[in-house]
Amino acid sequence: MSFDAFKDFSMAGHNVIITGGAQNIGAGIAKTLSGAGAKVMIADLNGDMAAETAAAIAAETGNDCRGMACNVTSKDDIDAVVAATVAAFGGISTLVNNVGWGGRQPDPADIPEEEFIASYKLNTISAYRMSMACLPWLEKADNATITNSGSFSSAVPAYDILPYGTAKAALNQMMVSLAHMLNKKVRVNSILIGSVVTEGYADAGLAPEVIEKLSHPDNLIGRPGSPQDIANAMLFLCSKASSWISGQTINVHGGGAVVRLFGA
Ligand SMILES: NC(=O)c1ccc[n+]([C@@H]2O[C@H](COP(=O)([O-])OP(=O)(O)OC[C@H]3O[C@@H](n4cnc5c(N)ncnc54)[C@H](O)[C@@H]3O)[C@@H](O)[C@H]2O)c1
């Protein structure tokens, strides 16, 4: 037998930058891409945690994985992580814009303008800047991709996290547009992620009873997501396995809430 169905999922020969990869979903993505053969640079606000996570991944996968401090809202930091990655790996083929965050708004009718601006800077504009900084290298690479950690809250009403939901919705539009701008050179896709319950939920201001409910969701699969669920989809979108897919947003959210037209 000579047919290898997993060949197109290999990331061997790929050089990855992943933002926000020091923990949770991003760390799961970094480990999976590394395990599939890529060289991976984790760029995270928390440089120490990025380096620790990268060292643990390299020990587990046997592939080159590094971590460094980078605030994706700073142009200087973005330029530094691009330069460090090219110096370490010789190029960039794969950008995963994973950074994102949004707190719950206690009063959705009175959100400070600064909250919206900060949310757009973190969730939307950082992905644009990262993409443009990596572009000269992506254009030279085989199977070049940009893939984003989007949110399902960008596609459903989410009035209590307005700055986050709208910034993530803007990310969807921006990235589909970039896919058209970069046609034939770089594939651009986004995953709209459902609930992957992490310690970040409490930090975002969710009450314990809300977190408990989200931990037992009424979705089609009947469980919350795990970082590995997202990482598996990310591997598909970053690898040649998805080489005929660009400009798409893909829901990875347990199938969404169960709809019962006539009650239980
Ligand atoms: N967890 C979920 O349920 C969920 C749902 C939908 C979408 N998402 C999206 O998935 C992505 C990852 O989510 P998560 O829950 O793993 O997040 P997380 O908060 O657990 O981890 C985010 C990482 O990003 C880093 N970071 C924060 N600000 C940064 C900055 N300015 N520059 C560089 N790094 C920074 C943090 O240090 C952290 O390591 C985010 O974009 C998030 O919006 C998550």
Explain this structure.
The protein has helices at 24-35, 47-61, 75-89, 113-138, 162-181, 200-203, 208-214, 227-238, and strands at residues 15-19, 39-44, 65-69, 94-97, 145-151, 187-193, 248-252. The mean pLDDT is 96. Helices cover 42% and strands 15% of the residues. With 264 residues, it is an alpha/beta fold. It has one domain: 3-Layer(aba) Sandwich (Rossmann fold). The chain has a seven-stranded parallel β-sheet, sandwiched between helices. The chain binds nicotinamide-adenine-dinucleotide.
Looking at how many chains there are and whether they match, the oligomeric state comes to single chain
Q: Helicity range of the residues?
A: 40-55%
Radius of gyration: 18 Å
**What is the total number of structural domains?**
1
How many alpha or pi helices?
A: 8
What is the β-strand count?
7
Q: What's the architecture, going by CATH?
A: 3-Layer(aba) Sandwich
Could you tell me the strand content as a percent range? 5-15%
- Give the uncertain stretches in residue-range form: none
First-last Cα distance: 50 Å
Structural class: alpha/beta
Mean pLDDT: 96
**Shape summary:** globular
- Assigned CATH class: Alpha Beta
* Main sheet properties: 7 strands, parallel
Which molecules are bound besides the chains?
nicotinamide-adenine-dinucleotide
